[in-house]
Specification:
- This is DUF4386 domain-containing protein.
- The chain crosses the membrane at residues 38-57, 77-100, 112-134, 154-180, 187-205, 211-229.
- With 239 residues, this protein is mainly α.
- It has eleven helices and no strands.
Length: 239
């Protein structure tokens, strides 16, 4: 009787080869995408939180919001730049998380991808800070307030702002959930991230609450970023 032939053991779900299997060729750019995704996770939430920490925003009324532009003009202008890039990087950050869970929950992952794409529009809305600063510093208080309230009153603006805000919040939260369900990240960063976004969207009306809630998001996404950066290239390729 001839000796049995050893065949390389392959993960039944088509994932990574098990011990004893010959290494397979990795896709071109695999490591670049993994490192880029990990860095976007580290930077996105950190920049969003940092931008809010630059100014003690008081936005309970339109008048208070405009006064912030007068009291902290330079900080408001630079914070808008930081926030713009933070919001932009939330898209590749979310897509990185989605990639980790796309095989386990393909439909939910696709939903998260669409929501995150809508959320990318929030980076452009940041430009309203420049407009508000110009009104507050160049016009009398009553006239600046009147023009700002008129611009805020257009119904069409909500068709841009609302989907963008919901896209960022829901897209990132669902992406965290998808990555957790795929066992790619621990439960703690998912809970922190969801708690932070819910707090930011629904309850962060005070001066420092936006910074505190986005700090939770920053910690959650940075945690996931470290997981991705420490991941083996083979594991990333099989995700």
């Amino acid at each position: 009787m001839s000796a049995p032939v050893d065949h390389p053991a392959v993960h039944p779900a088509g994932g990574l080869p098990t011990a004893g299997a010959p290494p397979r060729d990795l896709p071109s750019g695999n490591r670049f995408r993994r490192i880029g995704g990990g860095l976007s996770l580290l930077a996105s939430g950190t920049l969003v939180c940092a931008s809010l920490a630059m100014i003690p925003y008081e936005s309970s009324t339109d008048e208070a919001y405009l006064q912030t532009g007068i009291d902290h003009t330079g900080n408001v202008l630079w914070a808008a730049v930081v926030l713009h890039y933070g919001y932009l990087l939330l898209l590749p950050a979310a897509l990185t998380l989605i990639r980790l869970g796309r095989r386990r929950m393909p439909r939910t992952a696709t939903t998260a991808m669409v929501l995150a794409g809508l959320g990318a529009g929030l980076s452009g809305i940041v430009a309203i800070d420049f407009y508000a600063v110009a009104l507050a510093t160049e016009l009398p208080r009553d006239e600046a307030l009147r023009l700002y309230e008129v611009s805020e009153g257009y119904v069409q603006s909500s068709l841009i702002t609302l989907p963008a805000v919901l896209g960022v919040v829901l897209g990132t939260c669902v992406a965290l959930f998808v990555a957790w369900r795929a066992r790619a990240i621990p439960v703690a960063p998912m809970v922190l991230g969801i708690a932070g976004w819910v707090g930011f969207a629904g309850f962060a009306g005070g001066t420092w609450l936006p910074t505190a809630t986005t700090a939770l998001v920053a910690v959650a996404l940075a945690w996931c970023g470290v997981v991705v950066l420490r991941m083996r290239d083979e594991t990333w390729a099989a995700a």
